[in-house]
Amino acid sequence: MSIKYLNIIKSIEISEIRSKNKNDSSEMNIIKTLFLAIVIVVISLILLVINLQLNHEWVKLTSLLLLALSQLVIISPPFINIYKNRKKIKNIFQRPFNHAININIKKEAIIDEKFLPKLISLDKKELQLGLMEIKHERNSLEKRILIITGPIEKLGMLPSIISTLVALYKITEPNSWISALAYGYIGLIIISLMFHQMLMRYDRMISLTELALEKKSQI
Hints:
Blueprint: H1 3-23, H2 26-54, H3 57-74, H4 77-84, H5 89-94, H6 96-120, H7 124-149, H8 152-155, H9 158-169, H10 176-218
Helix pairs in contact: 1-6, 2-3, 2-10, 3-9, 3-10, 6-10, 7-10, 9-10
């Protein structure tokens, strides 16, 4: 694969990250949310291990409450965005499409417009080889994710929430398998969300490369 092609692809990501850092985008909020959820889950797991030695009910309760908190953190970004934009809620409902374009599309479109000519300037074989390699890596990553996480996208967080509630309800009873299910599932959700962001990045670079090839064939 051409080094020039790789450098352009990397430059696009750097430009997006800088833009998102300045504008505190929804994607950056998701990344920060995932990091916070991971920290909470780790603390919860540490307490769970401590409880195996001490066998204190309050330690187990604290661990499960932290696990429940991590679940709330994961589903919180949409509500946080609503709160941050509470003064604009009326405009959002009146012009939802315009709002979605400004938040999710406009910045990416500006960056694409900047880097598309650079991709078009590359040799056609370089673009084709780059596209093939990115598609291959994207498909390979997706298969690895499915092996690890399974059908989580279809089930969502419901199994994790239910198992956590059951474990809290039966706090005084031995239910290690329920707690293991709750912790295991929330871990898979976090992994799935992290990889999902990467897959979205691959899809975007694939679409941009295909557009560059299309434009190049018209020249």
